[in-house]
Amino acid sequence: MRAIFSYLFFVLHTSVFSQQEFAKSFVDVFASDEFKGRGYVDGGNEKAARYIADQLARFGIKPYAQTYFQKFGISVNTFPNPTKVQINDSVLKEGIDYLVDPYSGSSSGIFTCFYVDFSNASTAASQKENVVFVIDPSTTQNKDSLAILQQLKYQLSNTNPVIWLNNGKLTWSVATEEAQNAILEIKKEKFGHPDEIKIEVENKFIQHFETQNIIGYIKGKKKKKFIVVTAHYDHLGKMGNATFNGANDNASGVASMLYLAQHFANKKPKYSMLFIAFGAEEVGLLGSEYYVKNPAFPLKQIKFLINLDLNGTGEEGVTVVNGTLHKKEFLKLTNINNQQQLLEKIKVRGQAANSDHYWFTQQGVPAFFIYTMGGVSHYHDVYDRPETLPLTEFNDLTSLLIQFINSF
Q1: What local confidence, expressed as pLDDT, does residue 140 receive?
Q2: 136, 153, 162, 283: which has the fewest C-beta neighbours closer than 10 Å?
Q3: Among 201, 236, 259, residue at a domain's last position
Q4: Residue spans of beta strands (DSSP E) within 4-65
Q5: What is the DSSP string of 203-258?
Q6: What's the confidence (pLDDT) of residue 5?
Q7: DSSP class of residue 167?
Q8: Is 153 found in the same domain as 44?
């Protein structure tokens, strides 16, 4: 119900919002439970795409082609049903005490624990069927040994379910392949040293899931050259009853993109502008890869691209990926920031394949990826929710971006 009221408030009053109010209202809706984590269970991904298209239409921004949606297909492993892990009489909490590995297959039953280390790894696969293999990576701090244990985890899952004990933060993702049996990541403090464990995990592997990019267009005074602003709208979705809402990652980046879209819809830009909300970023940058292979117009017409991801904090400033690659543009950005005294710091970084700018950079398109630093550190977990996101420097960041775009 709260999300419904937030939506109505957003629709009726967006035009009078400050940047931060705009972002908060949007994130409250877009990262609410109603959007199911914007993933591949319960229609969350499709609902999120329609919502963005509705906002673009409401701002008066048209699609570049006949529709806002650029469809493409992916393979994805999902967990639509509740999962269960029980140790003795204790039922663990999904997303808090344990995760189902994104590559996990299905397993059901009560299993005897067989603890695997380097001394017995070669014979582990010969154990009986009702065994679950338990791997404790804290037994080694050597990076090469840890990598071997990671490989072993997936190898052993070909014959039996596997448990990986975690001493740190639980971080989830999305996979495009599936294992033969269940793979679980359990907090070591919650595991203890039981003889038996009850597991109920059912995966559903979708060979062809239709998703989409969403593309909006503003015709500029110079029609054939483009400034492109991008942000991925997808997140991890649901793992059983656990929802990964993705407020910072990346409802915040979509909020930045939409604020810029609304601004330039009301003030005709010098160059034409494309606003692209990418799907399937969390699955391996697949939406942006598809776009680069199927562009709306030749990529050489892009004068500059700004990719926005993780824009929800900013206490320590922002980082600009590709800043060392495009030194002239980076200097321009920092000069604007210094003159206006906006952000605490603009940190330069080199090339990195860590968001949707990557495929454009590979094709020679000048691009920045900008993300905020400091503040809360919730990432790919169940705590990345609207109520935990401060949006500390959203006003200053969007003001900087507007001036940077106008400088071309």
Answers
A1: 85
A2: 136
A3: 201
A4: 62-63
A5: -EEEEEEEEEEEEEEE--SEEEEEEEEEEE----EEETTEEE--IIIIIHHHHHHH
A6: 46
A7: S
A8: no
Residue located via tokens 């344990």: 98
Instruction: Determine the distance from the C-alpha atom of residue 228 to the mean position of all C-alpha atoms in its chain, rounded to a whole number.
Output: 20
Q: 3-state class of 329 per DSSP?
A: helix
Contact 184, 88 (CB under 8 A): no
> Residue 191's domain spans which residues?
82-201
Count other C-beta atoms under 10 Å from residue 255's C-beta.
Answer: 29
How many independent structural domains does the chain possess? Answer: 2
Asked if 229 contacts 356 with a C-beta cutoff of 8 angstroms, the reply is no
Report the C-alpha gap between 11 and 55 in whole angstroms: 8
- If asked whether residues 162 and 212 sit together in one domain, one would say no
Question: Over the stretch 232-266, which tens digit does the pLDDT of each residue have?
Answer: 999 999 999 999 999 999 999 999 999 999 999 99
CA distances from 298 to 147, 295, 304, 364, 382 (A): 41, 6, 13, 12, 40
The amino acid at residue 47 is: K
Q: How confident is the model at residue 139 (pLDDT cuts 50, 70, 90)?
A: confident
149 and 297 part of one domain: no
* CATH, residue 296: 3.40.630.10
Do 226 and 272 lie in a common domain?
yes
Alpha-carbon distance of 215 to 257, in angstroms, equals 12
Residues 35 and 111 occupy one common structural domain? no
The reply to whether 363 and 266 lie within a common domain is: yes
Tell me, what's the pLDDT at 15? Answer: 45
> Are 222 and 323 contained in the same domain?
yes
Check the CA dihedral 155-161-167-171 and report its sign. positive
Domain boundary residue, one of 162, 182, 201:
201
- CATH of residue 103: 3.50.30.30
Q: Which residue has the tokens 């709260």?
A: 2
Q: Is the domain of 59 the same as that of 190?
A: no
- pTM for the structure as a whole: 0.94
Residue 122's contacts (CB-CB under 8 Å, 6 or more residues apart) are none
Cα separation, 128 vs 287, in Å, equals 43
